[in-house]
Amino acid sequence: MNERLKQQMNFLIEIDKLKSIFRQSHLIDGTRNENDTEHSWHIAVMAMILAEYSNEPIDVLRVIKMLLIHDVVEIDAGDTYAYDVKGYEDKYEREIKAADRLFGLLPEDMHLEMRGLWDEFETCESAEARYANALDRVQPILLNYLSGGKAWMAHGIRRSQVMARNEFSKDGSEVIWAYILEIINDAVDKGYIVKG
Amino acid sequence: MNERLKQQMNFLIEIDKLKSIFRQSHLIDGTRNENDTEHSWHIAVMAMILAEYSNEPIDVLRVIKMLLIHDVVEIDAGDTYAYDVKGYEDKYEREIKAADRLFGLLPEDMHLEMRGLWDEFETCESAEARYANALDRVQPILLNYLSGGKAWMAHGIRRSQVMARNEFSKDGSEVIWAYILEIINDAVDKGYIVKG
């Protein structure tokens, strides 16, 4: 078999492990936690359905590629909960190491392309990355709200924490952020999120 | 809230249910069955990594959109196992009804776009659909093989059945099909698939 295809298939086989990396969010029906591949699929579909609400013109293919691979590093680095301050201290360092190993399985040109997309997503320095990051933040809020606020309540999350972490989503989409802000406020009213 | 965004969000909320539609394939580590969203994510990543092997030039964005939504109908119609002859009798009828309801949640222009992509995938009448269908067939073969042939052995699947169902994948990609054919033959040698 040709070496290039073998490297590509090895990467595609390795990332099957992302199906076993579970997040704090629950499925909307509340039956279980969601994993990284389910989350990635969901936000990729969101990217195509909600593209018209990006603040800036975007290349939808670049956004979707970014979203499909943005969590792959968690195969090695694990999922760091949004409000885990300690976990965030070395998150980036752990994820850089993971990116080197995982994208490094690919042929060099693709290694560079995927690593470029991942870096772009992380640094949020393009219209595509701003829109992609907004979706990445908005989807768990939607799931937490519709599954009865379990993940927030389990950690006693406050409105100010939710805002500090997510408000920058409006840089990606003012329209989607306005929709989510209503949800956040209703979640406070319902007691899912602590006031203040 | 604007009616259009509300319809789009209702669709995005409804499709969360696809995370609970399980398939016959197992994760590569053999721990459990895979669900439709994990499968859809996996083949969408394959579409971008393996695009160079499509027999014909393709629009990768169209392929990925098709793959992300191709199984959404199974929310209502359920997963029909590849070798379930009885299930296949009314599969298309059940899925058409599901497509009407689910894509019908979207604003009319998007309903038509998504339904068009789904029809195109089902009828396999474009270069994009041929490549997309090849990936949809190839991924479960890869998973079944690497998880020790569980799904094939549970149903006593024969090589001729695997070939009859999957050989058309070569219309999408000769290169990927050659890779998978080696796997099928090795699966026969290993006793995962019945000879003949």
Report on this model:
2 copies of one chain form a homodimer. Chain A is mostly helical. Chain A has a single domain, classed as Hypothetical protein af1432. The first copy, chain A, has helices at residues 3-14, 36-49, 60-69, 74-77, 85-89, 91-103, 108-123, 127-146, 150-155, 159-166, 174-189, and strands at 22-26, 33-35. Chain A has a two-stranded antiparallel ribbon with strand order 1-2. In chain A, helix 2 (36-49) packs antiparallel against helix 3 and helix 2 (36-49) packs across helix 8. The longest helix of chain A is centred in the C-terminal third of the chain and has 20 residues, at 127-146. In chain A, 44% of the residues are buried. Chain A binds chain B through residues 1, 5, 8-9, 11-13, 15-17, 19-20, 27-29, 31, 34-35, 37-38, 40-42, 44-46, 48-50, 53, 60-61, 64-65, 68-69, 106, 110, 142-143, 146, 175, 179, 182, and chain B through 1, 5, 8-9, 11-13, 15-17, 19-20, 27-29, 31, 34-35, 37-38, 40-42, 44-46, 48-50, 53, 60-61, 64-65, 68-69, 106, 110, 142-143, 146, 175, 179, 182.
Describe the structure using short key phrases.
homodimer; 196 residues; mainly alpha; Hypothetical protein af1432; two-stranded antiparallel sheet; 2 strands; 4% strand
